[in-house]
Request: fold
Amino acid sequence: MKLFNLKSVLLATASMAIAVPAFAQTEVIWWDFLAGGDGVRMKALIDRFNQEHPDITITGTTSEWGVPFYTKVRTSAAVGQGPDVMTYHLSRVPLALSEGVLTPITDEDLETAGLSKDDFFDRAIEAASDDDGTLYAVPFDIHSIVLYYNKSYLEGTDYLDENGELTGLDGLENFEAALQVAQENGSQTPLSYQTGGEGGVWRVFFTLLAQQGGTLIEDGEVLPGDNLDKAVRAIEIMKSWTDNGYQPQQAEYEASVALFTSGQSAFHLNGVWEVPTMIDMENAGTLGFEWGAVQVPALLDHAATWADSHAFAIPIQGDQTMPEEKRDAVMTVIGWMSKNAISWAEAGHIPAYRPVAESEQFLEMEPNATYSSLADSAAFDPRSTIAGVASPVYEAALNLIAPAIHGFLEPQQAAEQMQSELQSLLD
Amino acid sequence: MITNRRKHIAIAMTLIAPFVFIFGLVFLYPTIRVIELSFTDAPLIGSGEWIGLDNYKKLLSDNLFYTSLKNNGYFVLLTVVPTTVIALVIALAVNRLSGRMQALMLAAFFLPYILPVSVVTQIWAWMLDFQFGILQPAIAFFVGERVPVFRHPVWVMPTVATVTIWWTNGFNVLLFIAGLRNIPTELYEAASLDGANRWQLFWKVTWPLLWPVTALVLTLQLILQLKLFDQVYLLSGGGPFNSSYVLLMMVYREAFQLNNGGYASAVALVLFVIIMVVSVLQFQLLRIGGRK
Reply:
């Protein structure tokens, strides 16, 4: 009896082992760094994809944004332990190319996904390609920082028009006057952004630099010519916001968001990815004030806003190549995500896939519509192997600009030190 | 007799073979590879071209190297002697207790040591948080204002040193307790009979007999603190403007962020040599000092 039992167990196991391939599902390992309000939207998208595709399962993991994510990607991909598909910042593509962690995305790949290069904004395709025009990532969105505002501090002032929309903030003087008004109306730190971290400091600094027509890197030179003075000016402006008590000191990312959502800050400079946070809180009735979001006003010479793009990329698999079947599944995932990017737009982003970005549904979407024009004034990170998320440039923002805006280092010194440190990495 | 001797050697060889094998595999081979790598321009993974001494030349003209070296030295000054003195004082105090009370106090001081570094840094990052930290009112009381300790060029190293001492001190206490228990009580009795007071008992009996342990603690601490990385990486990231940047941070950044495996190996090797020379030198000096 015992023997018989064992036999049947063995038989059952054997038949199961045979049966498995018949119901084979291709598993796609997915890594992303989307932990903010947009991460929730992305998880919903992944769930929907899994439901609609019985033959493909996405297994997603979210790692910490920035250095932790990209360090992990590089080391794991090099030994073949990386994901099958991952989110990647287009600002980092030059760095990725120098590291050799991405596989080229061929026209056949795009065909499998049901996409073509013409479906995307030219700027995004350019940023996702190497100098020879080989594509290494499929652009997914364009995102920038925007100015969030709390209407309760501005009611009855000239800064809200008859529709209750923000107005009259162009020019640094007007902007700072508005901060002053908000402060007098009880907002302790009227302008919150991540002043104690690399991301927030870099984005605001680069916006102010770009609004003066400045560039960080040109022809292999860091802050050439009068760009150094423009960088100093940008740092000085940020420092004056600290000195006047407009912005919080050493605010970590979460704290900077909390200062706005808890109603303490009248304005908030942050990425569009926090739009869903505001929407969710408003719907749940926990926000406690009316909010809006607009494109960052032209504080200096002309309108410009720091911007970047999320994209999908397929990393190398160590010495192996990905089996064709798996690669097709990955491209199916990427294609589906692009075509369903309208749900991603709800996370505040502007889709990079034109059929969605130009659809009526998107053009009517709020608050995206109020800042979707920023595609024209977007200032992308310099295309360089030392720039992009988790790059030496971001590191310099934390290591040099952040101390300068808190008064530990002269703005001039900070800019010069940034110039020499980054230049030595390029030479 | 000869066969016996042979057998003897054979047995000895078999007994040390596992150690030699593992030592060769996980220490000797990687060390040789690091030396080899430091003469190439290899990326993090894969091999590179032989470039001779270029990495070392680059290192000698790298400002960050000197900044890091200076910070490493500063950190050693801030930790090694203070932690030894504190551990000795605690050990002397705990040693005067007896039974359960002694075990309890010992456990209390040893507890931080068993925490992983990430937990330790989380605890202190929250306690010292600029906006919400429970210790900020205390700092404000003494200094007059809140201080973002891990973002302040003057405060950052001493604070990291304090956290490190809090974390690792328990082990040193344990070593000192063991050393104190090894001192025969008759010596104290005899000295007391001869009229020695507490002060003399410490300086004439405890201190000289405890010296080998003290020398050991100092040397272990020196090696440990030169290898500083985790706390700085997790608490300050080397900032602000490199005022807490140390050599191992440089190795990490070059290897994992900038993909320069060769250069990172050169930095690592220099650190290895520094630790070796300094610790051997220190241990010899302490031994000579102890014999006097």
Summary: Chain A touches chain B at residues 67, 71, 74-75, 78-79, 98-99, 196, 248-251, 255, 390, 392, 395, 398-400, 402-403, 406, 408-409, 414, 417, 425 (CB under 8 Å). Chain A has 18 helices and 14 strands. The longest strand of chain A covers residues 141-150.
